[in-house]
């Protein structure tokens, strides 16, 4: 039995108890954090439980408890001198950014750290627990109704296990990365997580979630203004974007540019009768505003140059090199370069990509450039691919 199975469950349901718990938690230089939330039927996540652990103390906090004030927890999370540890941090960071008003850095994401430790790309928490601390996670409580009270013993035990294991995984992975001198390898990924733009939810920039299929002003204007309209409606009604209007419908509207209810109802991707619904007039107004004055609503974008496909053979050679370098270093390939980087590297002489900067260049980039210029070769061997400098 692990500590996650047998340890004391401390469920915080009032402000005084939370303040005392935060004073104890605040004695450490890191916090392992997880949340249970629902958002299937809402725009904003409904936080149902918050789990927090330090080196030797852990609590479960009920944010739905009547009268509880989370300000002491928010203050703890906002403290820049304390590392906040998450696994696959994006959604949890969204929650705390909304609670405290800014992104709660610094962070340590164990999914990112796992890539630098050679444990795989986007490894699940369940697999990480099994591989790093030899524990098991009972996933049967994961999709239960966390908003329903009272929470069961099984739910609480599952929730506590998440942060009890997380703090141990953090200690092990951080120690390994520090010993190998690899903490720098995950700095860029963590910096990207802390970008406030990830959690801004500004209606005026909602169009950035869509793939740009044309660069004409009227298309861009409708795409941007309809996206902004949907974002505002979703926020105000607290409903998921796709329940207001699907992404495919926004793309079809931007390309077909319907100006009337009749034209809107002929759209294949638009729900039948949408034009006569309570949202119909607002959508039509957003469309017509954009079409009447495209220059006002269209984002200013430069159409990318058409450079043609990269040489296929070179792409494949670079992929083989990347895989071998990654295997040799014990690191996930995606932490060094992604598919777009490889294609650009095959096409351009020395493109401006992260794979040709810093530690990535030392590990892979220099070898890739030498491979392109015939100064490095790849040869098959009984033990795999051999990298030969010429």
For the biggest sheet, the summary is: 6 strands, mixed
The CATH architecture term of the largest domain is: 2-Layer Sandwich
Overall, the morphology is flat
| Cα distance spanning the termini | 55 Å
Strand order of the largest sheet: 1-4-3-2-5-6
Structure description:
This protein is α/β, with parallel strands linked by helices and 390 residues long. It folds into three domains: 3-199, Nucleotidyltransferase, domain 5 (2-Layer Sandwich), CATH 3.30.420; 203-297, DNA polymerase, domain 1 (Orthogonal Bundle), CATH 1.10.150.80; 312-389, HRDC domain (DNA polymerase, domain 1, Orthogonal Bundle), CATH 1.10.150.80. The chain is 47% helix and 11% strand. The protein is built from 17 helices and eight strands. It has helices at 3-6, 15-25, 71-78, 90-100, 110-116, 125-132, 153-180, 187-193, 217-237, 241-244, 247-256, 261-265, 280-292, 294-297, 312-329, 339-347, 358-372; strands at residues 11-12, 30-38, 46-53, 58-61, 83-86, 107-109, 376-381, 384-389. The chain has a six-stranded mixed beta sheet. The protein has a two-stranded antiparallel ribbon with strand order 7-8. Helix 9 runs antiparallel to helix 11 (247-256) and helix 9 (217-237) packs antiparallel against helix 13 (280-292). The longest helix is centred in the middle third of the chain and has 28 residues, at 153-180. The protein is flat and about 65 Å long. 33% of the residues are buried. The mean pLDDT is 94.
